[in-house]
Amino acid sequence: MVVTQTNHLAGTEALLERGRDLSTPLLRAVVDRLAPPMDTVAAYHFGWIDAQGRPARSDGGKAVRPALALISAEAAGAPPQAGVPGAVAVELVHNFSLLHDDLMDGDEQRRHRDTVWKVHGPAQAILVGDALFALANEVLLELGTADAGRATRRLTVATRKLIDGQAQDMSFEGRERVTVEECLEMEGNKTGALLACACSIGAVLGGADDATADALETYGYHLGLAFQAVDDLLGIWGEPAETGKQTWSDLRQRKKSLPVCAALAAGGPASEKLAAMLAADAKDGDGEHPGAHEDFSEREFATRAALIEEAGGREWTAREARRQYATALAALDGPEGRAMPESVRAQLTELADFVVERRR
To answer: What Pfam families does the database record attribute to this sequence (predicted)?
Structure first.
């Protein structure tokens, strides 16, 4: 069993490393197009330099989306390199969203170091985020092919849904209750849409028909929901040394994440006590940004986390991650019974396993 787990991890890391190796040169070249100081700010965000501008080898993220875009190209019978512009475009949109989300949420740490707005100021975080979004479309459209136009349309729709999801997420913070269905819709927009795009964009650039691209998109959408369910668990119970965020990160932000929504829907003493606490929060907020509760002790956050777990929110979310994982893999049966090539299925299964088993 140890050998199997080791081989599994090695295979996953190889896929992620390939995604980084093939996409990073184009990503860096595209980011270099930005005018100063945006080029430097973006380089800091991606982990290529430190806050003083010195070369760095910081954690640049998991690179799941680039890896998926390259596998997507292979699903169309094209070489993985055909998916590189799509991988870069999706990574640019993803990081555009991170720059803005960190500022809106007041997050001071990402990937174990200070966020861009904390180091370079809110204005630069906004400008660089906007610039990355523009570059994402530019890198696709400059290919000048019909398939590039199809890919750009998918990316644009996914970006609009991502923004919808962020708006929903923020609106939930000031509400006493959010249903599980509302939460899943929000997370499908905020996380599922872009991951779905990553899973189809390489295939589109590789010349796949819409039916094949749609099947891959369905896989990616449900993988995104599994990814976010795991993220929600880590946002409450993750270890800061592994996640790079504060303890009880999502509770500090009043996030109505899946564990919270599931706990509130469960009923019972723990659920009712949690609901009363959140109702008091909503009244005390008085319209201000629901950022970190500076006046709360660590014991207060621990109490809330314990209530969520007692009400069943943690267990329900873990089950939901597995359910979405299974739904994602079922989509690989392909349109009209045309299964994905076995090598592609194996790689997509490898990354799906990584998503639901990760600890950061």
So the answer is: polyprenyl_synt (PF00348)
SS3 114: strand
Residue keyed to tokens 């990160």: 249
The C-alpha atoms of residue 69 and residue 65 are separated, in whole angstroms, by 6
Nearest to 263 by CA among 189, 325, 183: 183
Q: Residue 253 CB: number of other CB atoms within 10 A?
A: 23
Percent of the chain with pLDDT over 70: 91
What gap in Å lies between CA 19 and CA 94, rounded to an integer?
A: 15
Report the domain count for the chain.
1
Query: pLDDT tens digits for 203-215?
Result: 999 999 999 999 9
The answer to whether the CB of 201 falls within 8 A of the CB of 91 is: no
Closest CA to 152 of 131, 138, 165: 138
Provide mean pLDDT across the span 232-241. 90
CB 294 within 8 A of CB 213: no
SS3 294: coil
Considering Cα of 243, then 348, then 63, then 69, what sign does the dihedral take?
negative
**Per-residue pLDDT for 291 more than 50?**
no
Rounded-to-integer distance, Cα 125 and Cα 127, Å: 6
Q: What is the pTM of this model?
A: 0.90
Among 51, 139, 159, which Cα is nearest to 95's? Answer: 159
Q: Alpha carbon 150 to chain centroid distance?
A: 23
CATH number at residue 341: 1.10.600.10
Q: What is the residue range of 153's domain?
A: 2-51+58-357
C-alpha–C-alpha distance, residues 20 and 179, integer Å: 37
What is the distance of C-alpha 44 from the center of its chain? 19
